[in-house]
Amino acid sequence: MDYQTLIQEYGYWAILIGTFLEGETILLLGGVAAQMGALDVSLVMLTAFVGSTSGDQLYYFIGRWKGQALLDRFPRWQQSANKVGEHIKRHQNLIILSFRFFYGIRNVSPFVLGIYRISIPKFVSLNIIGAAVWAFTFTMIGFFLGEAHDRILGKGSGLILFGILLLAGLIFWGYRRWYYRPVTSSPEDVDIPPP
Length: 195
Known about the structure:
Blueprint: H1 3-21, H2 24-36, H3 41-73, H4 78-98, H5 108-115, H6 120-153, H7 158-178
Helix pairs in contact: 1-2, 1-3, 2-3, 2-6, 2-7, 3-5, 3-6, 4-5, 4-6
């Protein structure tokens, strides 16, 4: 089985799962794969939209249901939660629309929005708009990276770019998982209102 067949068979599943959990790197790879002809660009966008929307809705409802209890259990999340909370107080709608684009607050934002009891219809509608813009943007960035790479190095060299992006994604993932230093906070630092 060659790499193109592998991407065609499992690419959409990888994008769905990757965007459900976090997503930028896998979506860039999906855009490159679409430019290479291994995936359909419209389906890459749709899959990323579904994965991202579903993941963020889940995190939001977990935040509404058990948010403060989870922050108490995992204090290293507290600093990020406080950062997001400060922005929510000032720019609620903008945060819901754009949190996917900001490293460091992307995963914790829907969770904190749930803790803050942002209304369900507001979160769902703005989350859908934000997910659509994000899926389109990152898919097209990946697509155009693949196209620029082909123009510079010639057709058929997309596998090199795909491999570079995959390696960069794995290094980034490893760094975040193994070298992330937990932030400790005292109860006095907690700035999240009770649900």
